[in-house]
Amino acid sequence: MDIDRFKHQHVEILDGIAKLRSFSHAGVKEHAHEIAHAIIALSTVVKLHLAIEDRILYPALQSGSNPQLSEMGKSYQEGMKGIASGYIAFSRQWSSAATIAAKAEQFRSEANTVLKTLFSRMQKENSEFYPAIESMA
């Protein structure tokens, strides 16, 4: 199974998280517009990635002949539900520069939690899930 597009999207997602981290460290209030734009851009990639995983990757693994990959796919899909809903709620709440500037510390706190969770998931997929797919498919 060719998973290059999924890997490429992971790079884009991780780059987006790094960009948000950089803007936040430089000053949330001072960079609220850049942060809002970065959240919107990141959300586009995250939503596309989730949709493609749900429509292509997970069904392919579950209908495949490898029971270990099928179970792994189910587990990863189930685990992503909470992460996805948390990220989507975060991105909706924080897509406005005015809101980010007005509630900078709340943004920083929520961003740390949500983005750390998303980052960790991308790292786990890169180090465990995708190599398993490539070696067993």
TrEMBL record:
Pfam families hit by this protein: Hemerythrin (PF01814)
Residue ranges constituting the Hemerythrin-like domain according to the UniProt record: 2-133
InterPro entries cross-referenced by the UniProt entry: Hemerythrin-like
Name this protein carries in UniProt: Hemerythrin
